[in-house]
Amino acid sequence: MQGPPLPFAISCEPRLCPREQGDHLPRPVEILEAVGSMPGSPRPTWVGGRVLRAHVDRFAMRIVVRSSHGEERAYAVKVYGDDLGSQVWGRCRMLLERDPENRGGLCLPIQYLPRARALVYPWMDGDSLNQITDGRKPELLRQAARQVADLHRIPMFPGPPITSQMIVESTGEQCAVLLGRFPAIASIVEPLMEALREAAARLDPVTPALVHGDLAGGHFLWTGTRLLVIDFDTLCFSDPAYDIGHFLAQLERRGLTGKVNAGDAIQWSSCFRDAYLAAMPEVSPRNVSFYRGVTLLRKISTIYRREPERAAWLAPLIASGARAALKEVAAPGGRASAMTGEAGPIDMQAALETALCEVHGPEARIAAWAEEPLSRHGKHRVVRFDVRTVITEGSPEVVHRWVGKFYRGDEDPRSIAAIVKALAEWEIARRGGPIVPRIVAYHAPRRLMLSEYEAGGSLVSAIAHYDGPVLPAVARALAILHTAPIALPGATSAAALVDDLRGGTEKLCARFPREAARLRRLVAKQGRGAPPVPPSLSFLHGDLAPAQLLWRDGTVVLVDFDRCTRGDPAFDLGTLLAQLRRVALRKPGKLPHPAAMRAEMVDAYQRCSRPDPGLAGRVAWYELTALLRKIHTLTFDTTRRPDSEVLAKRQAEAVHLLQCLDTIENEFDSIRSC
């Protein structure tokens, strides 16, 4: 049986609802009827509206009411499937009583319709803070921070305090649900939960305050003249650091998921955080970092729910951000930079974005990225980046594979990049030399060198399985490299290497007194037999080892030019052969005999270079010198790999090399005598 006809017309656009609504929710048409019949409003002749957002348990509408005089009023209406709207209405009334001047710029509801379970707000035209990305953003963020500080000062207690322990427990429950659906990510989530529990024990004491509970850029509305805070569904009593950590985490998530530029996200976070802490210095930065980590951990579930096709890429990034935030909790003062402590994923993404824009222009953006360690033993951290990029709006994603090397100390990465670029301009690969990865960019703030990733297999494995004439190919590639017309300051001489040997000999003798006489005799012999400086100096790699050489379908890939120098080509050959001998001694039978490898390389090198009758003897001298220097490094360098088991293996290798010195010396004496 139908009720009496309405005194006004209705127009609705429910088709704009993006998700199916629950059966327990009122229909949008019913909401139009309720708003049109609101007490205190002029009698309408027409009511129209459209659904803006919809979920299973709630939806929001924009409703316009037109009077008989043609006057129109617009409302924002939020409809609930339960009594939450009534609770929000009560809290908002209390807010207005405690802060009648509304210093926090809160956009509060003007009416609650119990039968429709709907909160009615005045409609405000404007943009959310998330939509604003131009030069207005920094100052608006500072203003937002000050308004949040005003909210936190309102003396209102909407319920018992929400403690950090309660938040840890609810986060654990959420993670348990996530792992029930996606058990494969346990290796990401479980360590984070453990880190979360440990961090919770380090939190600073808290004076609870009124908090928004879901603070994010989407809950600020800029009308052009006023900045308003909206949506008070989660208003509660807790640590005010929760709001700030939540806001920063949401901004970081937008950067990591490609919705905003990561560099902008870092700058904007600094604006908001610094302005808030200036207004509320009593709030703990340590606790802010904790709640930032909590929020990022919880957002892993959001990623799997909303973007399942991208979750495999995005979830590790979000997890890495959570890990960095929780590490800050243990740091002195609880923070070390704007977002941030040590470089986290958002910092790395900013560096990658800078490089991407240098290559493809300012419109290029990163959709997602991942990193994988490439070197565990070197002086510098080296990783491979897989970067999913969108070059122009609407274009398909392209995956770039880059190698990133992080420099420290006194090296000048720019000069190293210039050398690699000079080799590329010389077209070394076309001349028959090795493939040299192209330099992509250098990011000075992180001292990060990015180059194209060149695939290739292990040189040692290729030699062991005789995947073609590997050693002759390496020798030919080096012969071409040594003719590169690249000028460098300084040079490496045999005399300088001998001086270096003498400097460490006594220390070795003290460590191995039974070998002291042999070591002193060998070093003296190397000094007497040191090759003279060649008439013309060649360009050298300077640090050749199997790790710097890759084998790819009959071609050689050469990487890592940090120690390139000028000198005798025999230096490069001898250095590489010394490293191959180490492999042969550690793994007997894996490689050919060192003498055979040396003969094969020297023969191939001489076939494609200028006649050099003394090359074999000089190669032997440099090889023995490299082995003596390596004994010293293995014995005393404990900084690169401080693990006790690894250190023991290095010590054992040093002893083994010492025991083999007589055999090696005799082998080299026979070469020099020939």
From TrEMBL:
GO molecular-function term, one example from the UniProt record: transferase activity
One of the Pfam families matching this protein, by short name: APH
Domain Aminoglycoside phosphotransferase as annotated: residue spans: 117-254, 397-582
Annotated signal peptide: none
Family annotation (InterPro entries): AGP_Transferase (IPR051678), Aminoglycoside_PTrfase (IPR002575), Kinase-like_dom_sf (IPR011009)
Keywords for this protein: Transferase
KW Transferase (keyword) present: yes
Recorded superkingdom: Bacteria
Record flagged with keyword Transferase: yes
The protein's name in its UniProt record: Aminoglycoside phosphotransferase family protein
Organism: Eiseniibacteriota bacterium
